Amino acid sequence: MFEKNLLASKRILVTGGGSGLGAAMARRFVELGADLVICGRRLELLEQTAARLRDDFGAHVKAIRCDIRDGASVDAMMDEVWREAPLDVLVNNAAATFIAQTEHLSFRAADAILAPTLHGAMYCTLAAGKRWIEGKHKGVVLSILSTSTITGRAFTVPSAMAKSAVLAMTRSLAVEWGPKGIRTVAIAPGPFPTAGATGQLRPEGRDEGPAARNPLGRVGEHGELANLASFLISDQAGYINGEMVVQDGGAHLRGSGAEDLLQWTDAQWEKQRATRKS
After folding, report:
1. 35-40 and 244-247 strand pairing
2. How confident is the model at residue 278 (pLDDT cuts 50, 70, 90)?
3. What percent of the chain has pLDDT over 90?
């Protein structure tokens, strides 16, 4: 399945591609022959990631600074990308989240999660889809979601809402855009530790951690998610449309993953709020 040139004909944009799971997917895509574009808000980080990929694989990797929370910036980025060549694949990876008691969320805090996770994914999807349809060009949209789309998730309500909305978009566009040659698919990862997300979701004071509660007794490896993503965007998965593949070791079958937070004291929550404000 993972032939050396599996993605050789693909031009792929990964949002939030400078670090974490985005960078892991980007690396695997390039390894399989893809032409790559990565975007995010921190250009220095993007350029560092792009340089490593060029050095390691001799690949064509373009880094673009873009705040996907702003529709005009997304449109400008897509114009820049299309001036060189059309995209074949969009990976909606960029997102934000943190744990909080929902009644203590300010409107601004909720928007800080909804803006990149929901609005950013929608803006990028609309911008790519419009150009694909106008150019009669086939495309694939892969969105990285979470198992909160199945179980809900206490204490990360804006994220669960946003991811569920993007799943609705995935299923809806599978029908609307499928006849135009555009597939929409998604992955719901379980615990795949990254520096950014782990710091927000696993602060000091939580229980023994996701590995101990996982039926397989471990967390996911970045390469496992990158391989699944590579398959779903490839022509080998050409008959998969509108589906979300869960990759969590079966963890969501035991609960949402937030149950330990129900036992937190007011003092623990106050410490968490202070950490987020600092």
Report:
1. unpaired
2. low
3. 81
Tokens of 180: 């135009």
Alpha-helical regions (H) of the chain? 20-31, 43-57, 71-84, 107-114, 121-134, 148-151, 157-177, 195-201, 210-213, 222-233, 266-277
Q: Give the HSE-up count for residue 177: Cα atoms under 13 Å, Cβ half-sphere.
A: 27
Domains and CATH numbers, the chain: 11-277 (3.40.50.720)
Are the C-beta atoms of residues 15 and 120 closer than 8 Å to each other? yes
Pick from 195, 175, 144: which is nearest to 242 by CA? 175
What is the Cα–Cα distance from 94 to 69, expressed in whole angstroms?
A: 10
Nearest residue to 189 (alpha-carbon basis) of 232, 234, 237: 232
DSSP letter at 68? T
Q: Checking phi first, is residue 242 left (phi over 0); if not, alpha (psi -120 to 50) or beta? A: left
Entry pTM:
0.91
In the predicted model, is pLDDT for residue 205 greater than 80? no
